[in-house]
Design a protein that fits this description.
elongated, about 85% helix, about 210 residues, mainly alpha, Methane Monooxygenase Hydroxylase, Chain G, domain 1
Length: about 210
């Protein structure tokens, strides 16, 4: 019975890694759309979102089966319950990625709006945080999870810079007002992705220590 449960836990981990890979790809695709609007990339983003949603449902069902039929011990219970929480954040990151993709198509003055802000740096930092959070889970690495939490300060600072830059864009050219606001929305979505990455890191900590404290 224990051997079977260990196999199922390994299967669960592999499914989570797969969902994490999908989410990382969705963020990368969204960042590409910010820099270079493309109908093909937008369609790809929509397909990725559906794959992420499907993955979430499969993992939910897997976790429920483990909880109902395998009577996990304390450590196993923490790992399975953490997985259930993590996939919620991963799914929401997928939502943020498609939101970024959708909003980006309305930004036409990219040289005047995006290239004069820290939005690219913010996108890179958000993507890095998600990758680190997933790596922390795979490796069961508490210190790596803690690094994700500390990285949130960086993305918050970048968000503040983008807000100031958005105001400067509008003051410089009111005709860019709507696009500047769209840019602000993208920055907010990226900031939320960072928050979800921190949540994932906290659940990694919980799966290891029984506490979400990092």
């Amino acid at each position: 019975m224990r051997e079977y449960f260990d196999i199922e836990l390994a299967n669960l981990n592999n499914q989570l890694i797969g969902m994490g890979t999908l989410v990382e790809s969705a963020i990368k695709n969204a960042v590409e759309i910010i820099a270079n609007n493309s109908s093909e990339l937008l369609e790809k983003a929509r397909e990725q979102e559906e794959l992420i949603n499907t993955s979430e449902r499969k993992i939910q069902n897997h976790c429920i089966r483990l909880l109902l039929h395998q009577a996990p011990v304390a450590n196993d219970l923490r790992e399975v319950s953490s997985a259930l929480k993590m996939i919620t954040d991963l799914e929401r990151i997928g939502d943020q990625a498609i939101d970024i993709a959708e909003v980006s198509q309305y930004i036409k003055s990219r040289n005047n709006v995006i290239n004069v802000t820290h939005i690219d740096e913010m996108a890179s930092q958000a993507s890095k945080m998600v990758t680190l959070a997933i790596d922390a889970f795979v490796k069961k690495d508490f210190d790596l999870a803690k690094t994700v939490s500390k990285s949130d300060d960086v993305i918050d600072e970048l968000f503040d810079k983008v807000k100031k830059e958005t105001v400067e864009i509008i003051q410089r050219d009111k005709a860019l007002g709507e696009e500047a606001i769209d840019l602000m929305m993208i920055a907010k979505y990226l900031e939320r992705i960072g928050d979800h990455a921190v949540n994932i890191a906290e659940w990694v900590a919980f799966s290891i220590t029984g506490s979400r404290e990092l």
